[in-house]
Amino acid sequence: MSNKNWQIGTLIKKDMAAVNVMSLTFSLPNFETPMAGQHYDIRLTAPDGYQAERSYSIASAPEEKGIVQYGIELLPGGEVSSYLSALAVGKQVEMRGPIGGHFTWSTDMPGPLIMIAGGSGMVPFMSMIRHHLGKPKDIGREIIFLISARTIEHVLWKEELAEMEKTDLNIRIIFTLTNAEPDGWTGYSRRIDQEMLKEIFMTEQKTPKSAGIQNKMSAVPPAL
Amino acid sequence: MLINNDFIPKRGRSDRLPPGQYEDRGFPVLSLGPTPSISKDDWKLEIKGLIENPTIWNWQEFEKLPQVNVTKDIHCVTKWSKFDTKWRGVPLDEIIKIVKVKNEATHLIAHSSDGYSTNLPLADITLGKAMVALQYDGADIDPEHGGPARLLVPHLYFWKSAKWLSAIEFVDHDIPGFWEIRGYHNYGDPWKEQRYTFD
Prior knowledge:
The complex is a heterodimer of chains A (224) and B (199). Chain A has 224 residues and is an alpha/beta fold. Chain A has helices at residues 79-85, 123-133, 158-167, 194-201; strands at residues 7-18, 21-27, 39-45, 51-57, 67-73, 92-99, 113-118, 143-149, 171-177, 214-218. Chain B has 199 residues and is mainly β. Chain B is built from 2 helices and 11 strands, in the order E-E-E-H-E-E-H-E-E-E-E-E-E. The longest helix of chain B is centred in the middle third of the chain and has 8 residues, at 92-99. Chain B is globular and about 60 Å long. The model of chain B has no long low-confidence stretch (mean pLDDT 95). Classes of the chains: A alpha/beta (224), B mainly beta (199).
């Protein structure tokens, strides 16, 4: 039986990744190591046979064996997301993957890692940056991660991001908040624009490093 | 199969929805990179490969070819479907007649101006099954939806309907395209749920 067949994932951990995003971690009996940036599909089947399927990006690192962590935005009326948000630990859903061969990154690739994400579009980048931190040999790589969110409470895993910057001084995480900023906010507070990108990425000392750059951009929905 | 006993479907269901799909009343935009901006003045369509009459049309020339209107349901591999989409364009049958496709041709490779490509067996683009669409819903096709001209092959998952169509190549063997070599199904029949390579 191929790993790519539907298998039964068990919810083992559930908490909030941001004010509007739930983190759900499933264990899988037939785990296949993903590449950072890939997704796993979820399928729900109602008692009358009706099925709904969705693709969700993986937030966990490829190094985290046997589990898949998602960051799923809670959308009012969302058919699958609202079911998942109410799912109790220990409950099961059908899953299959990993899937997707375009929007992926690995520490085997050269150059800096430049990431730009909006809202829950940062989920696949969490997998990439966690993958980087999971490979001690990769420390030293230049990483710039620009995140646009409505408020600071809408940034996923913001405490973990702060820890990442302390763990690896070559990681620079920049926020821009589009709706409201906390007192004393010194970061950006507008939508991503050309001027912002120039300020962050085109400074003189950065330009020579940009040869062979790995650019990754994401927003909701993912790139396909 | 696992039954999720407490799962209450919220979406409407319809026998027009292939398995795993849901109806979206909007028109989501998904692409592999930035949207190319191509004016009608700069637009060209090259027909090449195993044909008697290699041809390059500009917009004015191409627009004069016989066009038809179709109303079709479309199905994206990312799970959304959209019903009753209205398109106008030049059927592939017309193009095949004009360029005289050779007998040994078995497949068509569609090329886009952003470097994208996708493959189709000839049987899937003849007899009214495919067109080069020039209009959506009675107006020019928006650049984000593949304008000025895109391929339309509505009976297959919508990644086969290449946006920003720049060339059509007729070949005598199958050449998997951008998504087909990146984990997506080579044929892509939504009714058989051929989403991924392993389906």
